[in-house]
Write a structure and sequence with these properties.
The chain has 336 residues and is an alpha/beta fold. It has two domains: 35 residues, no CATH class; 230 residues, Spore Coat Polysaccharide Biosynthesis Protein SpsA, Chain A, CATH 3.90.550. The chain has 16 helices and ten strands.
Length: 336
């Protein structure tokens, strides 16, 4: 044990020492919050004052942008304001993508994911509905309409009150098992031995879903061709073919593609200025909105008519899946 740890354990061994350490942590936390609150932002405003807003977190996976933004541009309705966001940086390529599509662009001087999202929503005061997307989500036709229809359908015609709505996402701790179940591929996937075959948040058990690149490659159809075409899957599972299909996610949900309301954003006190996931607040927005759902009697709804592709989880899957994308562009490109 290092001298530092020995001293820390000694101080932490009595109530006065514990109180001192807590006060020090609180002070450091307050200083960190003040630092991110003192940051600046630049907003290129091309909004139309719509009641629907799509905010897109981007800045770190440029090789995906042609396909990701191509799909968004093709499928976003004209009455949805779009804002591309970069946290802690300015990216000229993204600024140009936004300009080319007549979208807004927001950059912040500090890198904290809650900060940039809160500012984006504040910059669109008329937006009642907020779609939030990450830069590695590949949309399919009907995504925007289906998310809003699903929210309103559950709000008005079921026993549930939604916290947010999401599509059926292929590389997702919850969504991958739902998709495999619908395609009768659970046994095939189980035979790979890649995961524990349990719904999970990917943090406390069944971590392979977020850490093993082979899981992402399987869900993109490396061995099962039916998984390679997210557009065909969306057509197959469409309301016209299967009727309205949804499920309720009972665990923490990955929020790479969701729809929530401004009322919900206000109710959960905006995204938190915390550092649970590290100095950039990575995952803190997700933990916060899922906590809001679970502790206010609201549900996390997954529309199972729309399939959306997630390239893969960050960290261990990133390098492999960026290469996979480069070598399998036809799977990801917008279909003509």
């Amino acid at each position: 044990m290092s001298l530092k740890n020995t001293v820390y354990d000694a101080v932490n061994s009595n109530k006065f020492g514990k109180a001192f350490l807590k006060a020090r942590r609180d002070l450091r936390g307050d200083e960190a919050v003040r630092a991110i609150q003192s940051g600046t932002h630049d907003f290129v405003d091309r909004s139309k004052g719509s009641d629907k807003l799509c905010i897109i977190l981007a800045g770190y996976k440029p090789t995906l942008w042609e396909d990701v933004f191509g799909r968004i541009a093709a499928y976003v309705p004209s009455d949805v304001d779009v804002c591309v966001m970069t946290s802690g940086l300015v990216n000229e390529e993204l600024k140009q993508i936004a300009a080319d599509h007549d979208w807004s662009y927001l950059s912040t001087s500090v890198n904290h994911l809650s900060v940039v999202q809160n500012i984006a929503i504040e910059c669109h005061p008329r937006a009642k509905w907020i779609y939030k997307l990450d830069e590695d989500m590949f949309l399919t036709k009907g995504f925007f309409e289906a998310m809003l229809d699903t929210y309103k359908e559950l709000e008005s015609k079921t026993l549930y009150k939604p916290a947010f709505v999401s599509p059926l996402i292929n590389v997702s701790c919850y969504g991958h098992l739902r998709l495999l179940d619908k395609l009768n591929l659970l046994d095939d996937f189980r035979n790979t031995g890649l995961t524990d075959m349990k719904y999970s948040d990917g943090l406390h058990h069944n971590r392979q879903v977020i850490s093993e690149p082979k899981v992402a490659r399987y869900m993109w159809g490396e061995s099962q061709p039916v998984l390679r075409d997210i557009d065909a899957l969306t057509e197959r599972f469409s309301i016209e073919n299967e009727g309205f299909q949804y499920s309720i996610c009972p665990i923490r949900y990955s929020i790479g593609a969701i729809l929530f309301s401004r009322d919900a954003w206000n109710e959960f006190g905006h995204f938190p200025l915390t550092f649970v996931g590290g100095p950039y607040g990575l995952g803190d927005d997700e933990e916060h909105i899922c906590n809001y759902a679970c502790f206010t009697g609201r549900v996390m709804v997954v529309n199972e008519n729309i399939v959306v592709g997630h390239l893969g989880y960050g960290g261990a899957q990133t390098k492999t899946m960026v290469e996979y994308h480069a070598n399998h562009r036809d799977q990801f490109k917008l279909k003509a």
